Amino acid sequence: MLIPRQKTPDLTLPTLDHGTFNLSSDTAERGTVICFYRGLHCPICANYLTELQKRVSDFAERGVATIAISSDGEERAQEMAEKIGADTLRFAYDLPLAKAREWGLYISTSRGKTSIGIEEPELFSEPGLFMVNSDQTLYYGSVQTMPFVRPHFSELVGALDFAIQKNYPARGEYTGDV
Length: 178
Description:
Elements: E1 12-14, E2 20-22, E3 31-36, H1 43-61, E4 64-69, H2 74-83, E5 90-92, H3 97-102, E6 107-109, E7 123-125, E8 128-132, E9 138-143, H4 153-166
């Protein structure tokens, strides 16, 4: 399990149009929002990433970079980027499932074609949303077992405003006995 205020696993992946993404050297002032998505086969992911694409500039204004990541290969990642009209959202691909597990993501098996007629990969990760500080420590994390009911990006932007104004620390850091 990832722990707030502690370093996250390293993450280095190819991107569609921005060279190699390396979390440890991402240069945003306040960190990076990492949106792990299921893949091209997921219509809910397409809607979710469309909302993230609309908020990229909101995050950037607050000193936060954004990236969408899946275990899809380059071709399927490109199809997703085109599908949602991505022009500012970075897309990384080829996430190893072992790395997805390091991040606490759940792994699912294929159930064949989805409701939009696209074949699911044999194995893929379920969604996760993380805000990682510029020192690569975890600020916020949410992982899911299903594609439904995800955190809203507008709420995350509002929470960032509050956190910045109040210098609000990451919570959930206690690891002692209970």
